[in-house]
Write a structure and sequence with these properties.
single chain, 590 residues, alpha/beta, Conserved hypothetical protein from pyrococcus furiosus pfu- 392566-001, ParB domain, five-stranded mixed beta sheet, four-stranded mixed beta sheet, 11 strands, elongated
Amino acid sequence: MELKHIAIERLSVSRANMRGGRKGADIMSILPSVRARGVLVPLIVRANGSPETYEIVAGRRRYEAACAVASEAGEIDPLPCAVIEAGDDAAALEASLIENIARLDPDEVTQWETFTRLIREGRSAADIALTFGLTDLQVRRTLALGNLLPRIRSLYRRSEIDAATVRHLTLANKVQQRDWLTLLDDPTIYCPTGQSLKAWLFGGDTIPVSAALFDLAAFDGEIVSDLFGDERYFASSEAFWAAQQAAIEAKVADYRDAGWEVAVLDRGAPFHRWEHEHCAKRKGGRVYVEIGRRGAVVFHEGFVTLKEARKQAAGETVKKPVRPEITSAMQDYVDLHRHAAVRARLADAPGVALRAAVAHMIVGSSFWSLRIEPQRAGKDAITESVENSASEAAFDEKRRSVLELLGFDAEAPTVVHGNDYDTGLPELFVRLSTLDDAQVLDILAIVMGETLDARSSITDLIGEQLSVDMAAVWQPDAAFLDGLRDRAVLLAMVREIGGDVVADGNADAKAKVLRGILVDHIDGTNGREKVEGWVPRWMAFPASVYTDRGGVGSVVRTEEVATLTKLGETFTAPQAANDDDQIIEPEAAS
């Protein structure tokens, strides 16, 4: 850096000066001093490319005060200047910002934008923090604000949105920022601000990383940092719950291996301490698993209900809770495969799909917003098993035909929301108006399949009505076999698939041995007769159990469907769709 005096006419304000874009700096506080003593503190300048001319990167107020004095007196002495290297925009920005911060906090939005420009000029966040005596977190906060859409920064600069809203918007990606601006511009729609904005950004579920039972290092999903708080959040609640559920199941399995009875409460259901009493494991105490809606999980170890405690005190025998035949992961497997088979069959039965759609429209369900059935399980192996199934392949083939029929992107994963909303409702209606009834019914069948709840009684009812044959579309795979844990169930399966002689001969065998026998019969290996078309009872339509313990969701739903048929409602299963397919009316109730 070189110090020299430069004539005022050879100076001009640089665009790198953080106040360079403003109209007229406030010089009234320094003008009397400049009149009396001239400019004492050097301006920071650099050569601007023209011979013997310089641009001011810091010191604009002193320069303008000197210009005012020169205008009054007709002349002024050359101004003291510190000349920095030409072309270094980052150094110029830093010099300007340092001077202004030291003297007066600059406009907050200007500081955001200036820090962002420094990053583009090659400075790192650590460099900026060191230069300005700030913490790394302070710099990252400033940079996050600087990355907001220009219009949002302008709204804040004009005080049209508050600081809390702006800070929560730093958690939003550019698409979410644009969606929020759309809400802001529409006076008929609620636009979330302040704290409610965070809930809107995360779909109502702001799940902090502190809630995770699983290893964050192995988590593939996105985590968003709140630079203005002490927490980080999961960007996708669905991805979080998939990993969290797997961790819960592993922990529950550990407790059961240690001899505990475990009761897993429904998500959001509280564990009321005053309704329970401590009890040792050897006396029947169990572990209650409380799962909060924001992801937190608490394992309450060694409790029984007050009712059970009173019975124990009176010397009565307390009946232990019955453990279901299958784990929740295995229940996912059963439900999702049956669901896949039903909707594959439904795609060929638009008349039934139409009735299902009308029922959904009138009554509604958890998937009619419209929302797409995600077909996700707590374990990746189960999700992959469903994705690679014959049923999914058949359904996807029909879906591709419908996407082409609608003129949507052929690679879109779904028909519902499949065109990313590029086609508005009126335009889509016009498109559908050009299609005949059979084509529209084909589209409806796919939409109904995509929005059909995998774990609802309507899936079972349609599966029975369409006489879905699981043996034609499913065969046991590794994900299924690995999920079999219960020895009593495995023995019943061996009896079913291998006969009484094999089952009786292995009545005392461990679960691992029984599972091996099942595999031998399925594959026809180790001298055992191969069995074709075997389907476990839980997956059939209708579903049934292997023991008197029950606790299988598909069986419970089958019983609910059976109750409906007892009311006298009968149905006629339609034939597969063809060119002459007509809507089939239900038979009158007898």
